[in-house]
Amino acid sequence: MNRFLNHQEIIDKCEKINQNYDIDARFFDEIIDDLLNTEQPTEDVVLQGFQRLLNEVNHEIERMEEFADMRPNCFMGCAFCCYFPIVLSRMEAKMMFRSIEQFSEERKSEIFKHWESYYEMYKDKLAKGMEMDTEDPKTKLEYKQLNLPCPMLNPETQLCIAYEIRPIPCRTYLNYSDPQVCAEQDMPKEPFSYEFLYTFYFGAINELIQVLYENGEDVFVDYPSDAWSYDYLPAWINQWREGTLHEV
């Protein structure tokens, strides 16, 4: 049975990782090299790259956890982190939606139905949240205090409706302390964040799209503008619902 780490122990292990652990970018680079050497259709290359690089972030976290002797105490049905602001690029958003379009008809129908009720139920909170500055350090706590769930959160099961393609922030929030920290909304002693891994993931996915674009391949993103345009996930979903996501 895992012993819960206290806040200071988590800080100390974080410091150990910062000072002594070297991230090997080759794990990410090898995925890109492998995909660029295939004869698959361009869309398949892009979507496989998107999902494989997301999964590689999970693997890198596992390697760091082993290095620092840490074990997360997250469990299915805990949705504490699903109320944090999720910010991603338009390029990633388009990859998410293109991936969702490949889901079964039943699953897509459930997602779209959920979104219809979500945007009606939370329209007032969404109006406040979407106006918050994504780069302001205060935003994270202020957004959390809105008690606005992620549009990918199933309110009945408290599970993600698109778990396999969830964005980087969703993968990089982990709790190594007592789960009560989440249950009791104990801020700012929040779960540990590996958000710095976004640099490695995004650098790799950007390289993949750039090479395909420069080779004249028909990619479904507007490169490079989509790569550097950021917004909240609920904002991108709403644009997708309204059919305006492709506008630059």
Report what the structure shows.
The chain is mainly alpha-helical and 248 residues long. The protein has one domain. The chain has helices spanning 7-20, 26-36, 42-68, 90-100, 105-121, 123-129, 139-144, 168-172, 180-183, 198-214, 233-242; strands at 87-89, 173-174, 192-193, 230-232. The chain has a two-stranded antiparallel ribbon with strand order 1-4. A two-stranded antiparallel sheet has the order 2-3. The longest helix has 27 residues, at 42-68. It starts with 6 loop residues before the first helix and ends in a 6-residue tail after the last helix. This is YkgJ family cysteine cluster protein. It holds the Pfam family CxxCxxCC. It comes from Halobacillus locisalis. InterPro entries: Puta_zinc/iron-chelating_dom.
Characteristic key phrases:
single chain, 248 residues, mainly alpha, two-stranded antiparallel ribbon, 11 helices, 4 strands, 52% helix, globular, YkgJ family cysteine cluster protein, Puta_zinc/iron-chelating_dom
